[in-house]
Amino acid sequence: MTKPHSGHVLSSALDTLVKRPLNQADDAALVSAAKAVWYSDSNLESEVTAFLNRHTDEVEVRRAGYLLERFTRFACLSDLRVSETLNVLELFAHSTSVQAVMLQTVTPLRRRRDELAVSWGLSEGLGLKAQALMPFQTRHYEAEQRAMFS
């Protein structure tokens, strides 16, 4: 994983993650990014602005936006942090356009795709890489993290 820029842990982790398809994401960078969103008190607007200032490639920007929105879908995130994250996602609107997901009829299991990734204009999502995040969203781990940042 790359060295954090001026204490920007989230943006540094995103720098690493967006370089290749998300289903090949670096586990350490993925965990670092998720924990920065879920448990830290970092300023998400500052983090995302720092990231966007360094990235102009549309696919990289879309991957970062997808990841942030995907992180909001985990139960360990507080309502306040979900709101903050969703507000910050508006910064991506200036960099890229999010595509509307068209509802489809029932799709066979093998042809299912990550509709959130599709809405961000991506052909890949996290897939099984999301399993790397599972140990960090247990109630016990969440309680420990909240105690540390309180």
Task: Summarize the structure in words.
This protein has helices spanning 9-17, 27-38, 44-54, 58-71, 79-88, 90-93, 115-119, 139-149. Mean pLDDT is 85; it is low at 1-6 and 98-107. The two termini are 27 Å apart. The longest helix has 14 residues, at 58-71. It has 150 residues and is mainly α. It is globular, with a radius of gyration of 15 Å.
What features would you highlight for this structure?
single chain, disordered N terminus, 150 residues
Structural class: mainly alpha
Share of helix, binned: 40-55%
Mean pLDDT across all amino acids: 85
The best one-word shape is: globular
SSE order, as H and E? HHHHHHHH
Query: How far apart are the first and last residues' alpha carbons, in Å?
Result: 27 Å
Précis, in short:
The protein has 150 residues and is mostly helical.
Summarize the SSE layout with pairings.
Blueprint: H1 9-17, H2 27-38, H3 44-54, H4 58-71, H5 79-88, H6 90-93, H7 115-119, H8 139-149
Helix pairs in contact: 1-2, 1-3
